[in-house]
Amino acid sequence: MEYPPAQKIIDLAQALNMSIDDLLEIDDNSSRREYQDIKPNLAKKLRLASNLPQHDIKALTTFIDALLIKGEMWTHDFKTAV
């Protein structure tokens, strides 16, 4: 896909009286809203972990998946017991 020159995008946004983000349908706040409830210490550790070797990242994500499945089972068992 070929994009128009940056100046053409600027001109079009001005002609339509809209921001470049709106024109290109870029929503910075959507990703912020999606992650705003992540605990800061967890986010920091995940950022640091992203520098690990790929095999360690895979091990970490497998462990996280296992914890999430365990949590879902516990939540399901708790809800059905009540």
Features of this protein?
single chain, 82 residues, mainly alpha
Gist of the model:
The protein is an all-alpha fold and 82 residues long. The protein has 2 domains: 37 residues, no CATH class; 44 residues.
Radius of gyration, in angstroms, nearest whole number: 21 Å
Arithmetic mean of pLDDT: 79
Alpha-carbon distance between the two ends: 55 Å
Largest sheet: none
Low-confidence runs of at least 5 consecutive residues: none
Class of secondary structure makeup: mainly alpha
Order of helices and strands: HHHHH
Helicity level: over 70%
- Helix count? 5
Q: How many domain modules?
A: 2
Shape: elongated
Number of DSSP strand runs: 0
Q: How much strand content do the residues show?
A: under 5%
Helices and strands in order:
Blueprint: H1 6-15, H2 20-23, H3 28-35, H4 40-49, H5 54-81
Task: Explain how this protein is built.
- The chain is mainly alpha-helical and 82 residues long.
- The protein has helices at 6-15, 20-23, 28-35, 40-49, 54-81.
- The protein starts with 5 loop residues before the first helix and ends with a helix.
